[in-house]
Every structure is written in C-alpha cells, then in structure tokens.
Amino acid sequence: MPIYQYDCPKCEKRVDVFFRSISKVTEPVCPECGGKKLKRVMSKVMRARSDADRIDDIDINQELGRLGGSMGVGDFARWSKDLGKRYDGALGSDFGSLSAQADAGQDPVERVDAGHALRYRLEQAKMKATEKKRPKASDLPPADPYM
Ligand SMILES: [Zn+2]
Predict the structure, then answer these.
(1) What's the domain range around 53?
(2) Residues whose beta carbons lie less than 5 angstroms from ion ligand 1
(3) Can you tell me whether residue 34 is helix, strand or coil?
(4) pLDDT in tens, 78-120
C-alpha cells in the first residue's frame, strides 16, 4: 500500500496519505480536513534511492537477450533506438544518439560489444543515483566536540 506525505494548505498540516493502490495516487485527500489541494512532499533522499532502485530493476540479461548474438549496424540502430526511448530520459544515457550515428551510416564502436555498452551505462547511471543519496558534508550537523 503506497503512502505519501503531503502538505495541506487548507489546514496547514503535513499529513501521510494512504492509498489503496498505485492507481488511486492521483487523487489525494487530506485525512485531517478533507482538503483536496494537497502538495506532495518530495524527499530528495527518497527520490535518489528510487532512481537507483529503478536501475536495479532493469533486467540486463533480458535486454541482452534481445540482441541475439552479433548485430549489424541496422540491428544496432534499432536496438539502441528502443533502449534510448525507454532509458535515455531516466538514465541520462546516450542510446538515442548512438542510434542516430548508426542510422547515419557510421559504425559506433559500441556496436562491437553492445552488451558491455549497456552494462557500462547502467553502472554509470547507478553510480550517479547512489551519489545523490550520500549527504554532502555541508548538509551534516557540525561535529560534536565531546564525542
Ligand atoms: Zn487538511
């Protein structure tokens, strides 16, 4: 059961709203006053975690299975275009531009080992997402001199 935190401008409380299912998440109602103009409270830490989790959810083997052995430039263009549509926005990867290169008749070096290219990009994206999770030194309270 999903739980999200909201600020209610009507009663000025921060409330936890429970949803029966993900599909109901679009219509939050304040449990305190019944107000409907709730503002979702976004926790940066939680967001970073979910980015990393989403990358973990990507099934590399399934994506590689779609390769079916070595690819010609045309196959690679189609494969990377498909990955680009699904992942470039979320991961900041460059499959869209690889696909464009292949379409333009160039032969991107990534084609030779597309599996490695995919794995490498997922690693990079995951490192970035995990880094966001770590608090910066400036966010931490000053060190306790008595500890
Ligand atoms: Zn309220």
Answers:
(1) 47-133
(2) 8, 10-11, 30, 32-33, 35
(3) coil
(4) 999 999 998 898 888 999 999 999 999 999 999 988 888 999 9
